[in-house]
Write a structure and sequence with these properties.
Blueprint: E1 2-6, H1 9-26, E2 31-34, H2 41-52, E3 62-65, E4 67-69, H3 80-87, E5 99-100, H4 109-122, E6 128-131, E7 153-156, H5 159-165, E8 178-181, H6 184-188, E9 192-197, H7 203-211, E10 229-234
Parallel strand pairs: 1-10, 2-3, 2-6, 3-5, 6-9, 9-10
Antiparallel strand pairs: 4-8, 7-8
Amino acid sequence: MKIIRAASYQDMSRKAANILSAQVIMKPNCVLGLATGSTPIGTYKQLIEWYEKGDLDFAEVSTVNLDEYRGLSKDDEQSYWHFMHVNLFDHINIDPARVHLPDGTNPDPAAACADYDAVIHDLGGIDLQLLGIGSDGHIAFNEPGAAFELGTHCANLTEDTIEANKRFFARKEDVPRQAYTMGIKTIMQARKILMVANGPKKAAIIKQAFFGPVMPEVPASILQMHPDFTLIGDAEALALI
């Protein structure tokens, strides 16, 4: 485990973008695992800036996202498909056929999750997976207590996660209660994992997840066992370590 202390959110974003861009440059046809949420937006902005300067080429890159809300179509403004296009894909030269997210419109959870695991397998696995972390230690939608051996599955969102995500919706009642998400097993099979964290609300869980015991009640704690895991946090997120 490698921990990099950043001076600010902007510095964290730039440092994370450096690692992602190095992966693309070293392996132009790499498979990137991507995350949604507010934390990685700065990282995506930096990647776009370097692409516009001519420093990066995404033509051969494939991407797989961590998750998608069950029941939301691609054109729904709250879908993660929409989020990724607005914040990254629409601004770079990635091949639309190489962009992959779970199919939130598939009403059959078993089929939707099996299909997504097959996509990741057929791509040869994930070269570099980008993650955030929830204040309760969840990664993707693997909530506290999630089994470490799960592949892609349909997750029931906890009340804390629904509360955290309601800011993106008109009403709390509009937040989906389920999502199709990569499981911890799938995430841990990535060759490299990069986590970004910022702000004082993440300080306590950072300390617990990476300096406490490995246990399902703190899903991110399993990352202590990954052979190539890097955490980049700003001063506030890393204040307790």
